[in-house]
């Protein structure tokens, strides 16, 4: 009896020991977590819940370690202990100064000490110093996220990179920061600029049995790519001590960035618990900070130089006008505008433009979700910082006219507000995110059904017809794409961001508007003449039809152009084979044939061959029969048009930083985040 009790106690004791070995924690933001972390040097937890490892002070070091040690050696058999498996996930933001480049970087770290005394800043990342760099007695394992050319040019030469460092600043393995966008099935590596300021999620996993370290990164809203960026076979058993601290170390040098950790989870008993991304605090970039690379900045700067003179004149005119009117808060023409919102209301609706209300961030500002205090309606408020739209009367007239557009298949612009340099646009809040988000969703294997897809493309056609023909003026959308179609609660498609391109015509940025649009949706004549027309909108709508039917993006790699592929199926007489395999043949063949055929007709390379939106609506309602489609061009002639695309890709990369295209980005991302 006694021995049984003894055995039970012994068993319990071993269970407890085994339990104690495992560590698992999750921080969705670091609010109230001061006690769980050991912060050292310049690291702080901000009131917003952000863990800031360094700010932009030069030659600074910041450490943050989980305050309890983690048992890293598995001594289940005494002879040669193995390093335990671990898995960690975290989201970080590196915000570089608005002028020039930032530096240096930060590292996820396993270390025997939570202070690392004597460690130096700069490329030593607060982990080593010139004396002990490379010593095996350091027992430091680090995964570095480094934005500056390394210390040793030959081994660490790429600035924007991720590397695995053991006891030394020289990386054992490293790769330029990138991820495989496996939403595109052909999966190519997409570059990810670490110091762009966007939130990036990283996963570091070590398997103690297969002895392999995997490091994966992706933009925060992307989900985890299946293929890791670095998969490096390395037995860590001789490089870790029995008890280690886990955490982060960051440093700045002559160049300095702010390094933030938004959320962090860690586990030694399997996969790290997933972060709840919607609960993470987000660090906002300072006003006017630029996230673009120097070459782009140079181009933008030179383009802007041309307009600087205009700005100066405009500025003095505005100052003069304000002085003259002195006490008047509103200019009288502004008072005549029925869609003008009171700044105070929008301020209240978005809780003072609070960071937690942000549902999307783009290059030019953020989109906030808000509830209007006046009527309790939910709205999406797009906040655009742009000096170039100051005091332009026609600009306001244009917004007023867009505000009068009303259709159930449009994301209605409810109104606007201008305060200093900020333009606030108030839209209906659309709950289900963008069509692109749903089509290429990776969440729970969600597949949009054919019935829903057919209904959505019909809705978009109705919205576009309204813009083209049914309103008092012809409105050319110029950026029809799946990312600009939002899906409402009844699963109807609603076209967003219409008319914004035209708004910019009234601004001083008009020299850019001839390249408004998105690669893959640009009609061939557009890339030659730059002249948008209803017919180029029809072209883009045709591409959208193909996208919806095939479940693939218009351009996936330089080798896969969706329309070329559908034309090839069409010419082989097997157009139905182009249907999205994810639908599993669950579609009405006649409807699928109609959508694919109509897609080809709308995206016909000759503008004259394309139908009008009214005609498109008739086809979709079976009122007219689709004509036989021919003269699509041979695959060889198509290659030519592909080349053309490549030329325009580069021009779009440049203009991608201009307001018109970035606004589109904001809607889609905002709605994705809102989902
Ligand atoms: C943080 O510390 C508190 C108090 O010691 C504890 O209750 C809590 O579980 C810890 N949180 C994490 C994520 O470790
Ligand atoms: C953290 O707490 C502060 C105030 O205590 C609050 O303003 C902020 O929204 C909180 N952040 C998160 C992410 O909960
Ligand atoms: C960084 O933070 C320290 C203390 O928190 C402050 O004294 C310093 O001015 C900050 N530096 C910058 C560049 O913001
Ligand atoms: C320790 O090793 C044993 C046997 O190899 C294994 O069953 C156990 O899961 C390991 N524990 C940890 C925490 O890795
Ligand atoms: C380097 O770091 C070690 C241990 O952290 C410390 O003992 C040593 O004094 C440091 N050397 C210098 C030159 O700072
Ligand atoms: C850089 O790394 C290479 C290869 O590891 C080594 O031969 C060289 O001595 C290193 N240079 C410096 C300056 O440390
Ligand atoms: C690392 O990645 C490889 C290749 O994708 C995969 O086979 C392996 O299971 C991964 N290991 C861990 C620890 O996740
Ligand atoms: C250490 O790993 C090796 C190879 O994976 C395995 O054969 C051995 O049993 C492990 N030892 C312990 C103590 O878990
Ligand atoms: C994430 O947090 C939000 C807000 O706190 C909550 O509504 C949601 O259920 C959470 N999601 C998960 C997966 O825990």
TrEMBL record:
<keyword id="KW-1133">Transmembrane helix</keyword>
<dbReference type="GO" id="GO:0042742">
    <property type="term" value="P:defense response to bacterium"/>
</dbReference>
<dbReference type="GO" id="GO:0009738">
    <property type="term" value="P:abscisic acid-activated signaling pathway"/>
</dbReference>
<dbReference type="GO" id="GO:0030246">
    <property type="term" value="F:carbohydrate binding"/>
</dbReference>
<keyword id="KW-0808">Transferase</keyword>
<dbReference type="GO" id="GO:0005886">
    <property type="term" value="C:plasma membrane"/>
</dbReference>
<dbReference type="Pfam" id="PF00069">
    <property type="entry name" value="Pkinase"/>
</dbReference>
<dbReference type="InterPro" id="IPR011009">
    <property type="entry name" value="Kinase-like_dom_sf"/>
</dbReference>
<dbReference type="InterPro" id="IPR001220">
    <property type="entry name" value="Legume_lectin_dom"/>
</dbReference>
<dbReference type="InterPro" id="IPR050528">
    <property type="entry name" value="L-type_Lectin-RKs"/>
</dbReference>
<dbReference type="Pfam" id="PF00139">
    <property type="entry name" value="Lectin_legB"/>
</dbReference>
<feature type="binding site">
    <location>
        <position position="383"/>
    </location>
    <ligand>
        <name>ATP</name>
    </ligand>
</feature>
<dbReference type="InterPro" id="IPR000719">
    <property type="entry name" value="Prot_kinase_dom"/>
</dbReference>
<dbReference type="GO" id="GO:0004675">
    <property type="term" value="F:transmembrane receptor protein serine/threonine kinase activity"/>
</dbReference>
<dbReference type="GO" id="GO:0009845">
    <property type="term" value="P:seed germination"/>
</dbReference>
<dbReference type="InterPro" id="IPR008271">
    <property type="entry name" value="Ser/Thr_kinase_AS"/>
</dbReference>
<comment type="similarity">
    <text>In the N-terminal section; belongs to the leguminous lectin family.</text>
</comment>
<comment type="similarity">
    <text>Belongs to the leguminous lectin family.</text>
</comment>
<feature type="domain" description="Protein kinase">
    <location>
        <begin position="353"/>
        <end position="629"/>
    </location>
</feature>
<keyword id="KW-0430">Lectin</keyword>
<keyword id="KW-0472">Membrane</keyword>
<dbReference type="GO" id="GO:0002229">
    <property type="term" value="P:defense response to oomycetes"/>
</dbReference>
<feature type="transmembrane region" description="Helical">
    <location>
        <begin position="296"/>
        <end position="320"/>
    </location>
</feature>
<keyword id="KW-0547">Nucleotide-binding</keyword>
<keyword id="KW-0675">Receptor</keyword>
<keyword id="KW-1003">Cell membrane</keyword>
<dbReference type="GO" id="GO:0005524">
    <property type="term" value="F:ATP binding"/>
</dbReference>
<keyword id="KW-0732">Signal</keyword>
<keyword id="KW-0812">Transmembrane</keyword>
<keyword id="KW-0067">ATP-binding</keyword>
<dbReference type="InterPro" id="IPR013320">
    <property type="entry name" value="ConA-like_dom_sf"/>
</dbReference>
<keyword id="KW-0723">Serine/threonine-protein kinase</keyword>
<feature type="signal peptide">
    <location>
        <begin position="1"/>
        <end position="20"/>
    </location>
</feature>
<keyword id="KW-0418">Kinase</keyword>
<dbReference type="InterPro" id="IPR017441">
    <property type="entry name" value="Protein_kinase_ATP_BS"/>
</dbReference>
<protein>
    <recommendedName>
        <fullName>non-specific serine/threonine protein kinase</fullName>
        <ecNumber>2.7.11.1</ecNumber>
    </recommendedName>
</protein>
